[in-house]
């Protein structure tokens, strides 16, 4: 059994580190006092085995900042055997850069080949047992607890369980943690017509490792597409604040994968996360003082 983690693997507000950001971040004359980024997240597939200039730049960041990793290709729900060779390389990568936390999507992305999309695992009792066994195997190989992310999905073929019940069953059966994506909760609540706050009410807060927040694309009033390619909208900010109100302040990472704006715009969104966290901390302190 993998030991339970400490409360959170990182703290504060974070940013997904894309290769295009290395230069602008490295060009900062020094880390400003008001620099809002407390931690970074990377997809390990994009960095394992990278050497040369990029490898040196990346190492300079992992030596200065806490990091978490978010996988893209493990395909936890897929029919093919787990790629244990990749997992061994991943373990060496995590050890080399002193990264405690690895997360993956609760989905599948491969069959005979890579599907280049995150497909929903059927919400069935059989799928719970299948994917949980694979998660346990990953944790054994990595010698770390992992966290799985609730994904956005647009169809649920063969559904037997509600999304929240499937998610909780996997977390319990695998004894793993949760990367809670607040934007995905909002997107799914619109697309599948459920109450996002009720969904949050059934989340086991003790399993949350950290949060994701991102922008999406509104295709229609009843169809949102999770793109990570736009600024965060007000309803998602409000749901993030509701998440803090329910669970306390949790480390939160801004995802931006496409249409990446200039660095100051990205940092402004990270700073907004940090400001929300500070407000919640202050509110909790006032309650304690007057409690």
Give the second-level CATH assignment, the architecture.
Alpha-Beta Barrel
CATH superfamily: Divalent-metal-dependent TIM barrel enzymes
Radius of gyration: 19 Å
What is the domain total for the residues?
Answer: 1
Return the structural class.
alpha/beta
The CATH class is identified as: Alpha Beta
Number of strands: 12
Order of helices and strands: EHEHEHEEEHEHEHHEEEHEH
Number of helices: 9
Which term fits the overall shape?
globular
What composes the largest sheet? 8 strands, parallel, barrel
| N-end to C-end Cα span | 39 Å
Describe this structure in words.
With 291 residues, the protein is of the alpha/beta class. It has a single domain, classed as TIM Barrel (Alpha-Beta Barrel). It has 9 helices and 12 strands. The chain has helices at 19-26, 52-64, 84-96, 125-142, 163-174, 182-191, 196-201, 234-247, 263-289; strands at 13-16, 39-42, 67-70, 102-105, 107-110, 114-120, 146-149, 177-181, 208-214, 217-220, 223-225, 252-255. The longest helix has 27 residues, at 263-289. The chain starts with 12 loop residues before the first strand and ends with a helix. Residues 112-116 have low confidence and may be disordered.
């Amino acid at each position: 059994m993998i030991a339970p983690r400490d409360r959170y693997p990182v703290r504060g507000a974070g940013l997904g580190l894309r290769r295009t950001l290395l230069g602008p971040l490295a060009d900062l004359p020094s880390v400003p006092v008001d620099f809002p980024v407390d931690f970074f997240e990377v997809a390990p597939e994009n960095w394992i085995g990278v050497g040369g200039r990029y490898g040196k730049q990346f190492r300079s960041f992992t030596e200065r900042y806490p990091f978490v990793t978010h996988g893209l290709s493990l395909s936890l729900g897929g029919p093919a055997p787990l790629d244990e060779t990749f997992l061994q390389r991943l373990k060496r990568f995590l050890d080399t850069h002193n990264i405690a936390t690895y997360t993956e999507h609760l989905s599948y992305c491969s069959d005979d080949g890579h599907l280049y999309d995150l497909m929903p695992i059927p919400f069935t009792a059989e799928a719970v047992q299948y994917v949980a066994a694979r998660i346990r195997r990953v944790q054994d190989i990595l010698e770390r607890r992992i966290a799985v992310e609730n994904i956005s999905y647009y169809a649920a073929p063969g559904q037997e369980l509600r999304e929240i019940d499937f998610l909780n069953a996997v977390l319990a059966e695998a004894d793993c943690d949760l990367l809670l994506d607040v934007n995905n909760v909002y997107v799914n609540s619109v697309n599948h017509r459920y109450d996002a706050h009720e969904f949050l009410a059934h989340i086991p807060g003790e399993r949350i490792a950290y949060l994701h927040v991102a922008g999406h694309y509104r295709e229609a009033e009843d169809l949102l597409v999770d793109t990570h390619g736009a600024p965060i909208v007000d309803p998602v900010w409000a749901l993030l604040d509701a998440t803090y109100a329910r669970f306390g302040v949790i480390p939160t990472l801004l995802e931006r994968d496409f249409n990446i704006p200039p660095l100051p715009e990205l940092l402004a969104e990270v700073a907004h996360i940090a400001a929300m966290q500070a407000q919640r901390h202050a509110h909790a302190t006032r309650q304690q003082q007057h409690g």
